[in-house]
Amino acid sequence: MSELVLHVIPPAWGLPSIGPFCLKVEAHLRMVEVPYRSVVDATPFKGPKGKLPWIEHEGQRIGDSGFIVDYVTRRFGRDPDAALSAGERAVAAAFRRLLEENLYWTMVYDRWLVDANWPITKEAVLGLIPAPARLLVAPVARRGVRRQLAGHGIGLHSRDEIHAIGCRDIGAIADFLGEKPFLMGDAPTSIDAVAYGLLANIAWAPVASPVKDAIAQRPNLGTHLERMRARFFA
Ligand SMILES: N[C@@H](CCC(=O)N[C@@H](CS)C(=O)NCC(=O)O)C(=O)O
């Protein structure tokens, strides 16, 4: 069996990747104990979807964290969600959309569009691009992200509104987690990898935000992050 190669955006701030979808896939692969080698790409453009993460395995190139997880489940026959009922899978699917299609964009906003955070983001996300090129690339990339946020719709809101949306999502995740060790109960499942990928990237990044503060105010989320780190990234 050939090696599984995972392409990710760079590490920083004590995280193996500062891309939530990249960290999600790393957490998932560790959860299902599938060995991989991660390769840091300076830009997302080489991948089949023009985004990171993507994988190479047995001559195939697969982009998108969701399709990567589906492939790994099929190819290796390891499904951390196997014990979940149909109803539990539906709840996990809804939380995945909340995290990836909504809360994620509030993180993007805080990293890229809040002026005080922009130098930190630029250094970490574009840090592998040689300095002279980075000077040219950075404003173009920032304009692109502004367009993405407007296209999504969240970028049309005021700063306070975007933060209110993010804080509400954090409250929903914390309320649902409650005192359980993992989101769906006693054992980790794929939604824990999704949550870890994004929440660790908000809570542990040196990027100021009311959404980060909202995580700090819900100790069960911090405990969940530490539990995931100890279990899969020790
Ligand atoms: N739906 C994709 C989203 C991946 C994604 O947005 N990746 C970001 C980095 S975390 C990226 O490559 N952004 C570059 C761009 O949008 O141009 C997935 O689940 O993998």
Provide the gyration radius in Å: 17 Å
Percent of residues in β-strands: 5-15%
Mean pLDDT: 97
The SSE string, one letter per element, is EHEEEHHHHHHHH
Total number of helices: 9
In terms of structural class, how would the helical and strand content be classed?
alpha+beta
Number of strands: 4
Spans of at least 5 consecutive residues whose pLDDT stays below 50 are none
Largest sheet: 4 strands, mixed
Question: Taking strands numbered 1, 2, ... along the chain, how are they ordered across the largest sheet?
Answer: 2-1-3-4
Bound molecules: glutathione
Q: End-to-end distance, in Å?
A: 27 Å
Overall 3D shape: globular
What percentage of residues falls in helices of 4 or more residues? 55-70%
How would you characterize the overall build of this protein?
The chain is built from 9 helices and 4 strands, in the order E-H-E-E-E-H-H-H-H-H-H-H-H. It has 234 residues and is α+β, with helices and mostly antiparallel strands. A 4-stranded mixed beta sheet has the order 2-1-3-4, covered by helices on one side. A hairpin with a 2-residue loop joins strand 3 and strand 4 (60-63). The model has no long low-confidence stretch (mean pLDDT 97). Residues 9, 19-21, 44, 51-53, 64-66 line the site of glutathione.
Describe this structure in a few short sentences.
The protein has 234 residues and is an alpha+beta fold. The chain has helices at 20-31, 65-76, 86-112, 118-125, 131-152, 159-177, 190-203, 210-216, 219-232; strands at 5-8, 37-40, 54-57, 60-63.
Could you outline the blueprint of secondary structure elements for this entry?
Blueprint: E1 5-8, H1 20-31, E2 37-40, E3 54-57, E4 60-63, H2 65-76, H3 86-112, H4 118-125, H5 131-152, H6 159-177, H7 190-203, H8 210-216, H9 219-232
Parallel strand pairs: 1-2
Antiparallel strand pairs: 1-3, 3-4
Helix pairs in contact: 1-2, 1-7, 3-5, 3-6, 3-7, 6-8, 7-9
The protein binds glutathione (GSH).
The site of glutathione has 11 residues, from helix 1 and helix 2.
